[in-house]
Every structure is written in C-alpha cells, then in structure tokens.
Amino acid sequence: MKTSKEKMIAGEIYQAMGRELFDERQYAKEQLHIFNNLEPSKVKGRNQIIKKLFGKTTNLFFIEPPFRCDYGYNIFLGDNFYANFNLTILDCAPVTIGANVMIGPNVSIFTAGHPVHPEPRVAGWEFAKPVTIEDNVWIGGHTVINPGVTIGKNTVIGSGSIVTKDIPENVIAVGNPCRVIRSITDSDKHYYYKNEKFPNLEDEQEI
Predict the structure, then answer these.
(1) In angstroms, rounded to a whole number, what is the distance separating the alpha carbons of residues 160 and 149?
(2) Cα 33 vs. chain centroid, distance in angstroms?
(3) How much is the pTM?
(4) Nearest 10 degrees: CA dihedral of 174, 175, 176, 180?
(5) What's the pLDDT band for 18 if we cut at 50, 70, 90?
(6) Which of 34, 115, 189, 206 is least surrounded by CB atoms within 10 angstroms?
(7) Tell me: the pLDDT tens digits for 117-176?
(8) How far apart, in Å, do the first and last CA atoms of the chain sit?
(9) Which domains does the chain have, with CATH numbers?
(10) Using 50, 70 and 90 to split pLDDT, how confident is the model at 202?
(11) What percent of the chain clears pLDDT 90, i.e. is strictly above it?
C-alpha cells in the first residue's frame, strides 16, 4: 500500500494528515524561518539552506526573502534562477524550473488542489499536479500559476495573470485567465519598453 507521501508525489488523491508529511512541512517551516530572518548580507547562509531544502539547485540562484514552500524537496531549479520578494511555492507535486528563469514579486505557484464537492474536501482529500516552467521564462509580479501547468521556453507572463492552462513557448501571455496575446519575434530584440529602443549594445558594456 502506498503512503500518503507516495500518493501525493504520484498525483493521486490522498490525505495529508499523516505524521510523515506533517513533520516534513514543519521541517521546511523551521528552515525557512531561519532563511527569512537572516541578515540581508548573509547570502551564502541563505543559499545553503535552499541547497539543503530543495530537490535540485545549481551554484547560481538568488531568492529574495521572504520565501515560503510546503516541502522544498519537490522544487528543482535550473541555472541562473532569480525570484523577487514573496515567492510562494506549494510543492506537493514536483515544480521544475528551467535555466535563466526570472520571477517577479508576490508570485504564487500552486501544485495543490482540492475536490470541488464539499464532502470529500471537508474530509481532507486533496491532490497535487506538477508545474513546469521551461528555460528563459519571465513571470511578472502577482502572477498565480495553478496545478498541472507548463509554461514554454522564452515566454513572458504579464503581471497579475492567473495561469490555469499550458502556455506555449515564445509568446507573451497575460490576464485572468491567462491568454496568449502575441508571439515574441526577432524584432523584439530592438526594444526594451514599448517603443523605446536599445542603444548600440556593442557600445554599452553595462548592458
């Protein structure tokens, strides 16, 4: 017979009332309490906590405190990851994040879900579906990503979006529910904000 943890990670219906999952959530809370209360200069100390807590990291990532998650071990980071303030990840199922992903402030990533009917929901039944964010994605602030969603590589999610279904690669998507508004093309290389163009990049070393 599968444990509640095994059912949770497999995406099956389960109850999170067992001691094992409770203890693991408590451990993550204790570690993140330390993470969120370290002095701002203690970057290495914060990163060591994340390396120990997450399922996978690299040597190049930065997560601004405060940060919260359920377990940590279901979060898998690609290289060169940045998250701004108040990222929340409910990682009951795997959350896989590719390389060069940027996340704005107050973003929430949810793998956890509950039955619509009140009786099984009140009885404590729940489920979890994985979330995947592919390489080079930028997620704007106050975005919510719901269970089971994949966001394709190079895509931009506009701020305030509620992402309820898969978003393809190489697009700009925004809204509630989040919808594709246009593709990203090579012409976008020349602009950084609306009609404002980049200077000559070869002459601007800081860019």
Answers:
(1) 16
(2) 19
(3) 0.94
(4) -50
(5) confident
(6) 206
(7) 999 999 999 999 999 999 999 999 999 999 999 999 999 999 999 999 999 999 999 999
(8) 56
(9) 4-197 (2.160.10.10)
(10) low
(11) 90
CA dihedral 160, 164, 168, 169 (to 10 degrees): 40
Q: Tell me which DSSP letter residue 187 carries.
A: G
For the record, the structure tokens of 53 come out as 């807590």
Where in the sequence numbering do the catalytic residues fall? Answer: 114
Residue closest to 97 by CA, chosen among 106, 105, 109 = 109
pLDDT computed for residue 201 by the predictor: 61
Instruction: Locate 22 and state its tokens.
Output: 């409770």
Dihedral angle of Cα 161, 162, 164, 170, to the nearest 10 degrees: 10
127, containing H or E segment: strand 125-128
Question: Which has the closest alpha carbon to 101: 73, 78, 72?
Answer: 78
Q: For the range 186-191, what are the long-range contacts, defined as Cβ-Cβ under 8 Å and sequence gap of 24 or more?
A: none
Confidence (pLDDT) at 206: 54
d(CA 174, CA 162): 8
